[in-house]
Amino acid sequence: MMKSSNLQKTLKKSEQYLPAEDTFFLADHLEGLSGDSALDIGCGSGYLTDILKSTFRLVVGTDISFNTLVEQNFKTQNVICCNSADALNLDFDVIICNLPYLATDEIIDVATDGGKDGLEIPQKIISSALPHLSKQGKFLFVTSSLSDYMGLIDFVQSKNFKAKIIDRKKLFYEELIIVEVKHLLS
Predict the structure, then answer these.
(1) Segments forming the whole domain that contains residue 99
(2) What are the beta bridge partners of residue 140?
(3) Strand locations in 45-160 (E)
(4) What is the CATH number for 121?
(5) Residue 181, SS3?
(6) CA-to-CA dists, residue 8 to 43, 108, 140, 169, angstroms
(7) Residue closest to 94 by CA, chosen among 156, 56, 139, 127
(8) Dihedral angle at the C-alpha atoms of 177, 103, 106, 6, nearest 10 degrees?
(9) Total count of domains within the chain
(10) Residue 78 lies in a domain
């Protein structure tokens, strides 16, 4: 677990996570989604948030790094500097997150490092997001074969939600995985 002082130092040095292969893979799964409200956790450059705003009435992006929000390439109107969805008091039809999924012993880059087995930070993000998922909503997140993705699915299911892998994309060094989460009774 990272101490607050270390996290503050890391955030001061953090750079905006620019759209990459995992971002574009998640973007492919946003086609056809629409509704009243959407949340992009860890919105970074604003690329995915920008896509969502064309089909949702309200789109909110959150990021733990204030510097990232100030320097967004794709400016978004409703951005909040907070940890995941912790500062929010709304339910969303769609929640998306390009998780920091890399298995690391130390969190150096908050945009990519997921902690032990790639689970520590993603579990915190997922725990923050689930209470904000509307009853008929869906939560899509990207993870990787380089992390314990089945551990993430088990974690979601232990919270009384259903989770399933809906797509995979092989890269030369890893396989990207999209997981869809819904309420058990949806």
Answers:
(1) 23-183
(2) 96, 180
(3) 56-63, 79-81, 92-98, 102-103, 113-115, 133-144
(4) 3.40.50.150
(5) strand
(6) 19, 11, 28, 34
(7) 139
(8) 10
(9) 1
(10) yes
Read off the tokens for 180.
């869809």
What's the CA gap between 76 and 20, in Å, rounded? 19
In a domain, 12, yes or no: no
The token duo for 77 is: 């109107």
Q: What is the predicted pLDDT for the residue at 167?
A: 98
79, 113, 87, 88: which is closest to 6 by C-alpha? 113
Encoded tokens for 114: 């997921």
pLDDT digits (tens, 9 = 90+) for 125-151: 999 999 999 999 999 999 999 899 999
Residue with tokens 């939560």: 139
Residue 108 in any domain: the answer is yes
* Residue 14 counted as domain residue: no
pTM (predicted TM-score): 0.88
CB 96 within 8 A of CB 62: no
pLDDT at res. 72 = 79
Q: Check the CA dihedral 88-124-48-52 and report its sign.
A: negative
The share of the chain scoring above pLDDT 90, in percent, equals 63
Burial of 145 (0-12, 13-18, 19+ CB in 10 A): middle
CA angle 85/7/92 to nearest 5° reads 10
Amino acid identity for residue 110 in this structure: V
Q: Residue 5: pLDDT above 50?
A: no
